[in-house]
Design a protein that fits this description.
heterodimer, A: 253 residues, alpha/beta, Rossmann fold, six-stranded mixed sheet, 9 helices, B: 439 residues, eleven-stranded mixed sheet, 21 strands, 22% helix, 37% strand, globular
């Protein structure tokens, strides 16, 4: 589904990603872990198409298309979804309006009819139940005055509504209490299928108790330095990241 | 400079012709006021950018044209159809090039307790109300455009609401400019009086049937009686070649409430002065504004809220969106006089600049001479939020649509509070289509 080849990216002339290689197939969940500043969020943002990051080298192929040639909106329309680490508050735009516009823009891209109002509402109610979100949040402005947990749940609601092929969750677990974490994970798990994939970016192993990954990768200093299965996450939880840093420095030294 | 002197002479020579055509009209008491005004006009100068109040607005282009009042033009009902709000109830009074058009107006179903008509008829009939109020709020002694308006006073909308009358449906006033070969000057002069405990909504709308060069110079005087409530909506949609200079002066009585919406969309150069004075205690005003500027438009809005008495509250909230090479000026002044204790005054001006070429000069001003008051003011100028734009795009929403959503979100709170639904719907639609060009 997704193939990242030797991806280099920088911001303000500072190289953050220094040659990422990653292959994600349909049906898989990949966890990307790593210490602060290792480039995890940058990778998520680059995949979503934030233009502040300059891709200096490498390719990203998504379903046979060169992702880097597409605008952020076309990437979303092709089936990529980024759940933000810091969801943006947009005063004056209601949650419902955002969701409906997004669905219809995606449908238009695919040459489909606009969604019927009743159909939309029924679907929305179902998805809201999934993330245990209160109806009243729908008419409120996007993320405005939402608590941290509400914002993250709202990201998962959007994901559930848009049903992307590839979901990228950028530290969706940070700042969540255990109940919110369970709800968020449940939302992600419900969407798991043999046709979809997810990249879960996280600092902590905790989330991976709920979203069981097929693969775990450790990102350090802009490169994936170790890959493994879910057991690697436990090892990281136990030992921290320092042993990897040392190992890497040893190799590079 | 000589050009400007010439244009003053031009207007003054026109006054003689104007007087000749008044016939018996020159015997009415109001004509004395006209004569005083033209005398004053001759001593005043058109403002330049050296005048503090016109610092950012160069009106030289306006002074290059020899504008002339037009004769009466008859329009057909279907020619004004597009200028009427859909599904709006209430009465309609239409002016074409500044002249009352009774055949286009709909004043048959006026409720009891309100008079709506043309100022010209009122003057002809020797209205005591006109004699009592005319020229009492808009001082022409220092303002050249007001002097010009007063000197040439002929017609405009007249509304009088009796004491204790609640007028549910809005009164719609439509000013249509029909530009032709001649460069037309129209000077609507409006007078709105709300009696004690009365309530009324007045909509002033300025439109044009074509793209020619013309000049609209409006003065509106509004007197709100004790405990009255006035909603005043002014929508300026002149042609892109038009000049629009306008002034509204409000005198507020005890416990009165004045709510205004100033929507500016059209004109090449336009200027709006909206001033409200609290003449007694317990009054409140809420001034809302929205300007959407594109191309080479220049819009200058000045407001003055005069807290002359204690226990009054004012809110002012103006928003602007500027694109292309447009220019905007916001100047909002609030004066709290020494005796005006327990004043509440809040003022805010927010702007979004969509292009490198657009510019806004904003100046919120508070002058406080009392010590027991609550006042605040602020101004912001920014661009569309890039993080919000990116966020919307990652949801599959295209650039154009995402911009439209954010622009709408920015301006919608001004529009949302308008109580007259058809006007609100109309403005929502304008807002959605106004800036959606591909970048």
């Amino acid at each position: 589904m997704l193939e990242i080849k030797d991806l280099h990216a920088s911001i303000e002339n500072k190289e953050i990603l220094k040659g990422i290689n990653l292959k994600v197939s349909a049906g898989e969940v990949h966890a990307i872990m790593g210490p602060n500043g290792s480039g995890k969020s940058t990778l998520a943002q680059v995949l979503a198409g934030r233009k502040e990051y300059l891709v200096t080298k490498g390719d990203v192929i998504f379903e046979g298309k060169n992702l880097l040639d597409l605008t952020p909106e076309d990437r979303a329309r092709e089936g990529i979804f980024l759940a933000f680490q810091y969801p943006v508050e947009i005063p004056g735009v209601s949650n419902t309006n955002l969701l409906k516009t997004a669905i219809n823009e995606i449908r238009k891209y695919r040459g489909e009819e606009a969604i019927d109002a009743m159909e939309f509402l029924t679907m929305l109610k179902k998805k809201m139940k999934l993330v245990e979100m209160d109806q009243s949040l729908l008419s409120r402005a996007v993320n405005e005055g939402f608590s941290g947990g509400e914002k993250k749940r709202n990201e998962i609601l959007q994901m559930a509504v848009l049903e992307p092929k590839l979901s990228i969750l950028d530290e969706t677990d940070s700042g969540l209490d255990i109940d919110a974490l369970r709800i968020v994970a449940n939302g992600v798990n419900k969407l798991r299928s043999k046709d979809r994939a997810a990249i879960v970016v996280t600092h902590y192993q905790r989330l991976l108790n709920y979203i069981i990954p097929d693969f775990v990768h450790v990102l350090y200093n802009g490169k994936i330095v170790k890959s493994g299965t879910k057991e690697l996450a436990f090892e990281l939880e136990e030992k921290g990241y320092d042993w990897l840093k040392e190992q890497k420095e040893l190799v590079e030294g | 400079m000589s050009e400007i002197l010439d244009i003053k002479k031009w207007y003054m020579s026109n006054f003689e012709k104007f007087e000749d055509n008044l016939n018996g009209g020159s015997l009415k008491p109001i004509h004395q006021v006209r004569k005083e005004a033209i005398a004053k006009f001759s001593t005043l100068n058109f403002p330049t950018t050296h005048d503090e109040d016109w610092r950012f607005t160069n009106i030289t282009p306006l002074l290059k044209h020899n504008f002339l009042p037009s004769g009466k033009i008859n329009l057909k009902q279907k020619q004004i159809k597009n200028f009427l709000f859909k599904k709006i109830s209430g009465n309609l009074i239409v002016f074409v090039n500044g002249h009352f058009a009774s055949e286009l107006s709909k004043l048959k179903n006026l409720p009891e307790g309100i008079s709506v008509g043309s100022l010209s008829d009122e003057i002809k009939n020797g209205s005591a109300i006109v004699n009592e109020h005319f020229g009492k709020y808009a001082n022409f002694k220092t303002q050249i455009f007001t002097a010009l308006s007063t000197a040439f006073t002929q017609d405009g909308a007249f509304i009088y609401v009796n004491d204790n009358k609640i007028i549910e449906d809005p009164i719609n006033i439509l000013f249509i400019a029909v530009p032709g070969k001649e460069k037309i000057l129209s000077q609507p002069r409006n007078l709105f009086i709300a009696g004690k405990n009365s309530q009324v909504t007045i909509i002033e709308r300025y439109v044009s049937s074509g793209a020619g060069i013309y000049f609209t110079n409006v003065v509106s005087e509004i007197a709100s009686g004790e405990n009255s409530s006035i909603h005043h909506i002014k929508i300026q949609e002149e042609s892109s070649n038009a000049f629009h200079v306008s002034r509204t002066e409000v005198g507020q009585g005890k416990n009165s409430n004045f709510v205004s919406y100033s929507i500016s969309l059209g004109g090449e150069i336009s200027r709006y002065d909206l001033n409200s004075k609290f003449n007694d205690e317990g009054a409140e005003c809420s001034l809302n504004g929205l300007y959407l500027l594109t191309g080479n438009q220049l819009y200058d809005t000045h407001s003055l809220i005069d807290h002359a008495k204690p226990y009054c509250t004012s809110h002012e909230h103006y928003k602007g969106i500027l694109d292309d090479n447009s220019r905007g000026v916001f100047n909002g002044k609030v004066i709290v006089r020494r005796d005006a204790q327990k004043t509440n005054a809040f003022q805010e001006n927010n702007n979004i600049i969509l292009s490198d070429g657009a510019l806004i000069n904003t100046k919120p001003q508070l002058e406080i001479f009392a010590d027991d008051v609550k006042c605040s003011h602020g101004a912001t100028v920014g661009q569309l939020d890039q993080d919000s734009l990116f966020y919307l795009k990652t949801r599959g929403i295209g650039e154009e649509k995402a911009r439209e959503i954010l622009i709408h979100a920015f301006a919608s709170d001004v529009i949302k509070s308008i109580k007259t639904e058809p006007v609100k719907d109309y403005l929502e639609k304008i807002l959605s289509g106004r800036f959606n060009k591909v970048r």
